[in-house]
Amino acid sequence: MTSGLLGIQFNIEKARLDGKVQNLASYINKETLISAHRKMDRKKAKGIDGVAKGDYEINLGENVEHLVKRMKNGSYKPEPIRRVYIPKNEKDKMRPLGISCYEDKIVESVIAQILTKVYEPKFYNESYRFRPNRNCHQAVREIIEHVQYHKVNYIVEADIKSFFDRVDHDWLIKFLEHDIADKKFLEIIKEFLKAGIMDDGKYFESEQGTPQENGASPVLANIYLHYVLDMWFEVKVKRKCQGEAYLVRYGDDFVCCFQNKREAEEFYQKLIERFAKFGLELALEKTKILEFGRFAKENRAKRGQSKPETFDFLGFTFYCSENGKKEFFRCKVKTCKKKFRSKVKAMKEWIKHNRVMPLMEMFKKINQKLRGHYQYYGVTDNTRSVKSYLNAVKWLLFKWLNRRSQRRSYTIDTFYNGLLKTFPLLEPTIRVSLFYR
Questions:
Q1: What predicted TM-score, i.e. pTM, was given to this entire model?
Q2: What are phi and psi of 312, to 5 degrees?
């Protein structure tokens, strides 16, 4: 973050007395825009203008000066975003993403930095995604901490239906106005919200929603859920609970932990009403209350029920277990089946379409993919799942390398004791500890 943005800290300190932050638009200036440009990834997809980073920087100084001038006289208008679709884990489902024009990208980047500077002191510790120095493993670790060491007996596993498409613009601006007094800065954000969408050559007005993972959208989404969910849970829900209650949120995915079943059920019903007020909706088929925690197995056994249910969060399945010697309760995780299957399927397609690649290059790229898989899924208690993934990759290699030609290239022996000796695959290791140190 540039020195120009560091000055926002003074305004934030002052806002604790005056109530709102002032003069934020002044931080969208030549210095901060050039800084944002320099940090922009050259490989980012192009918007409807077809301009890439390399194109824009040919006359960088002149382009930025012209941009600043238009922002000062009010003639700057963001272009519609280009909507693209990428596959989701579910079969035949696609996830929409928004790609802005290059000039809009750098403005959005500065806006995101400013909003982060303003709202980081306000956000609760329970939210993890799109925030500095926070990641998914910390969110997973937090849930394990609550379940394993606190009085948690019930889990509310929730899913918001199409969250990024349903963000209400009017409510979002009201939330921003609660903390920001700079009308010019808010007008710029409004312009981005109503810029519109180009989808397959057709223009659509953007009456609600923020394009997923686009520009300032992540921090705007966090601001929205900060007021709709986080603050409400902290101020209203927790204070009325007689038992313990915890929230862990990662973007629009969240899990709530409760000591008492009645309070978990009350929260579930009130959550539906709360979300409806702000234009959001729970995916009821993916939202449930389940008995979970250190006493779940024993209590369910007394009632003649099966072992405790599991729940999925951030690609992991959480389940009730014990330590190796069965001395005490442990909340453990493993790669969830849906993610495992999608990862194996993706690897299968890659090997299938690249099986004629030179072996040295192929194994190098596969090891890069394995390294990425281990960095995410190589966590405490998940050794078996990452080893299963490696075994699946080996079997896929054996299958498809034998289809490089009409003749069978390898036997089991020559593959495992020959090829894999020459080009060894990266062995799984535990990269992340889920224990608090």
A1: 0.90
A2: -105, 140
